UniProtKB/TrEMBL annotation:
This is Isoprenoid synthase domain-containing protein. PANTHER family: GERANYLGERANYL PYROPHOSPHATE SYNTHASE, THIJ_PFPI FAMILY PROTEIN (AFU_ORTHOLOGUE AFUA_3G01210)-RELATED. InterPro entries: Isoprenoid_synthase_dom_sf, Polyprenyl_synt, Polyprenyl_synt_CS. It holds the Pfam family polyprenyl_synt. It comes from the Eukaryota. Residues 1-21 are annotated as: Disordered. It comes from Aspergillus cavernicola.
């Protein structure tokens, strides 16, 4: 016997006009999943630290934190798909739980949604450039130190700089804060964070068990000293 079509499910809310009103539970599920995994929350901490200088309103700072976290989580979902990873922070990657297609859809949705949240709040932020790490993995080639650092600056560094610039744009005098020195500080902090993160992934067994993409990288002809 078929179940009645009038029974509401988590995906379907009752409607007064006889149609199904689907909610966002499916598209949000991968985002909610990855947001529950353990995290160092480095971007939230950086936002709080920067606001000691910038001193923007708490509700504006909270908006920026939410946007940056959403963008970061979206990038993690896509990174895990591209890297064929099976673990993220010691747990199954989102695409193994929800499927690659749904995760790509969810990550794209959150990126668009984050842009909509920022409209009227932040008018400028740097572009996050595509990275070369996927090509190096595909070619089984270790980059030089110069190449690696250039990739890092265009990846995590762009996110740190974007965070700083979004906060600056909400101050009364945005141009007064946008200086080469502050950009350089964001790059240095980013380099410290990313290089340490990558080094731990190579050397720390506990860290490697929680994030296994390096095992896939080293299966090729790339020999890391």
């Amino acid at each position: 016997m078929r179940a009645s079509s009038n029974i509401a499910t988590p995906e379907m809310a009752p409607s007064t006009n006889g149609t199904a009103d689907l909610n966002d539970s499916a598209v949000m599920a991968p985002i909610r999943y990855i947001s529950t995994l353990p995290s160092k929350n480095i971007r939230t901490k950086l936002a709080n630290a920067l606001n000691i200088w910038f001193n923007i309103a708490p509700h504006k700072l909270q908006l920026i934190k939410e946007v940056v976290i959403d963008l970061h989580n979206s990038s993690l979902i896509l990174d895990d798909i591209q890297d064929d990873s099976t673990l993220r922070r010691g747990n199954r990657t989102a695409h193994l739980v929800f499927g690659p297609a749904q995760c790509i859809n969810s990550a794209t949705y959150m990126m668009v949604h984050s842009g909509q949240k920022l409209q009227g709040a932040s008018q400028e932020h740097p572009q996050i450039f595509p990275t070369w790490d996927l090509k190096w993995k595909y070619d089984a080639r270790c980059p030089s130190v110069v190449e690696y650092m250039a990739m890092v600056n265009g990846k995590t560094g762009a996110m740190f700089s974007m965070l700083m610039r979004m906060i600056a744009s909400l101050t009364q005098t945005p141009s007064a804060w946008l200086s080469p020195e502050l950009d350089q500080l964001m790059q240095l902090l980013e380099c410290l964070f990313q290089v340490r993160d990558d080094y731990q992934n190579l050397q720390d067994e506990t860290f490697t068990e929680q994030k296994d993409f390096v095992k896939i990288w080293t299966k090729g002809n790339c020999h890391i000293p």
